[in-house]
Structures are given as C-alpha cells and as structure tokens.
Design brief:
0% strand; 5 helices
Length: 86
Amino acid sequence: MDFDDQLRRFFGTDDLGTLTPAALAGGVEHMRVEFGLEKDKDRRFAMWTILFMLGEAPDLDVAFKDPADRDAARNFMDLLDKSTSG
C-alpha cells in the first residue's frame, strides 16, 4: 500500500489540502484507531509516519514496543527534519 492509497483510505482523497478541518480530524481519528488495532509492523510504521507528518502521532514509547522500531521512527523524524530545514 503506497502513500496515496493510505490517504485515500483514511481521508477519502490523496489531496489533503481539499479537506475541511472536520474531515481531516475525522480521518486522523480513523487512522489512530486503526493504528491501535494494527498488528503488522510495516503497516503500523506507515500509519505512524503519516500521523507524524500531520502532527498527530502518538509518542514513540506508546507507538512502538520494540526499541528497533523506535530507532527507525527517530531516524525518520531526523530525515524529515533535515529535508524541511535545508
């Protein structure tokens, strides 16, 4: 499942700029619920990255039990920060 598929699944569009604040909040809530239920590590990580980019991700210690997953999330955060601050 790619990024656009995730956006369409949770928000009904691949252009978040077209959403009303209520629709965005509803999609975030839907994603957070599914994130909590998801067992597949790769899908959980993908959902977490989108939630992070939207400023809605749960804290790393809550989101990931495995230290390696927390490290991967920190690496993602660092890469994203470097790409937006340069």
